[in-house]
Structures are given as C-alpha cells and as structure tokens.
Specification:
169 residues; elongated; FlgN family protein; FlgN-like_sf
Length: 169
C-alpha cells in the first residue's frame, strides 16, 4: 500500500472538492433548465407568445451557462482521473452527511445523466408542441379569407389611359 504525502493528499482533496462543487452547480443548472422547459410547455399550450419568447431567451442563457460549466468541468475531471487514488491508497474526507467526496462524484454524475435525459425528453415534447401549434396557426391563416382578393386595387390603371402626351405650343 502506497502512502501519500500530505501535499498529494491535499491536492487530491482539493480536486475532489472542486469537481464536486462544479458538478453540483451543473446539476442545479440542469434542474433550472428542466423547470424552464416545463413552464415553456405550458406557455406553448396557452399560446402566450410574449412569455414563450421570455422563456426561450432564459433557456438560451441557461444552456450557455451549462456549456461554460462543462468547459470548466472537463479539465477538472481529467485532473481527478489523474490524481484519483487507486484501491488501497484512499484519500477520503467526509462531508457533513458522512459521505466521502469520492463516493459522491459517481452519484452526482449519475444524477446529471438522468437530468440530461429528462431535459432532452422535455425538449422533444416542446418541439412537438411547437410543431403542432405552428401547423394550427398555418391552418388558421389559410382559412382567413381576404375580402379584397377579387377587387381591383385603386392603384391599378385601366388600359385606356393615354400613354403619349403632346406638348406643343
């Protein structure tokens, strides 16, 4: 069994804690995103276009935040894998709930994967609702009859109008 120096132990602990914090932040963002998508589905059904626009803008901001968090998480995960203690050389610290930092990381990743699946499913439902809503609007627009379609415009000229003007003095 390999003994870790206090510096290595501190480094591993710092990497674990940072990764845990970032994964928890990402999980919170995914929950917020899922909540926005659910509310957006309600707004699609009630045909509230202003609220739908606001939800879409908020959705884009949250998605950008998730992407930025993922850019930070990837190098930390690489550091975690590089410094992750092998079996027998445990560098475990416990949190308030008695769980080790190391045991929480896989749970957070599993929770994130589940939230991602829920977000994708809700996104698909919203897209389908929007397709149906757009088709209904197109049908309504096609059903509207223009009462002036058959009448002539006041701006069109009859064929009997003069085309040559004689200017002689």
């Amino acid at each position: 069994m390999m003994q870790l120096s206090p510096a290595e132990l501190a480094e591993r602990t710092a990497v674990l804690r940072r990764l845990r914090t970032l994964l928890e932040q990402q999980r919170a963002k995914f929950r917020e995103y899922l909540n926005v998508l659910e509310k957006q589905a309600d707004k699609i059904e009630t045909e509230d276009s202003e609220a739908l626009l606001a939800h879409t803008e908020l959705e884009q901001q949250i998605a950008a935040n998730i992407v930025n968090l993922q850019k930070v998480i990837e190098p930390i995960e690489t550091m975690y894998r590089d410094t992750h203690p092998r079996k027998g050389a445990a560098a475990e610290r416990t949190d308030n709930a008695g769980e080790t930092d190391e045991s929480v990381i896989p749970l957070l990743k599993t929770d994130l994967e589940q939230l991602q699946r829920q977000v994708l499913a809700q996104n698909a439902r919203n897209r389908e609702l929007l397709k149906i809503h757009i088709a209904e609007i197109k049908d309504r627009l096609n059903a509207v009859q223009n009462p002036y379609r058959t009448t002539r415009s006041v701006y069109t000229h009859a064929n009997d109008a003069a085309s040559v003007i004689n200017i002689s003095v």
